[in-house]
UniProtKB/TrEMBL annotation:
Domain of life: Bacteria
An annotated GO cellular component: cytosol
SUPFAM superfamilies reported in the protein's UniProt record: YggX-like
Family: Belongs to the Fe(2+)-trafficking protein family.
Record key words, sorted: Iron
InterPro entries tied to this protein: Fe_traffick_prot_YggX (IPR007457), Fe_traffick_prot_YggX_sf (IPR036766)
Signal peptide per UniProt: none
Pfam family, one: Iron_traffic
GO molecular function, one term: iron ion binding
Identification of the protein by name: Probable Fe(2+)-trafficking protein
């Protein structure tokens, strides 16, 4: 049985994540308020950001940067700036 959440990113009811994919309070907020679809979109952007900025995920600053980008994307509707990437027009 899949659970449904009101996705803050997509502004609609959508299937939620099966389990908490991110630790701590932020992870709980994502689990409660973000759909699978929106989180999947974020993961693609996260990969582009990691590659573009050559981020080392062992580095606390890199993780902090990505967390800020993720929060802005999922909860504030902000697209991350990725060189050479133009988001599709909706």
């Amino acid at each position: 049985m899949s659970r449904t959440v009101f996705c803050q990113r997509l502004q609609k009811e959508a299937p939620g994540l099966d389990f908490q994919l991110y630790p701590g309070e932020l992870g709980k907020k994502i689990f409660d308020n973000i759909s699978k679809e929106a989180f999947s979109e974020w993961q693609k952007k996260q990969t582009m950001l990691i590659n573009e900025h050559k981020l080392n995920m062992m580095d606390a600053n890199a993780r902090s940067f990505l967390e800020q980008q993720m929060t802005a994307y999922l909860f504030e509707g902000k697209e991350p700036t990725i060189e050479g990437y133009t988001p599709p027009k909706s």
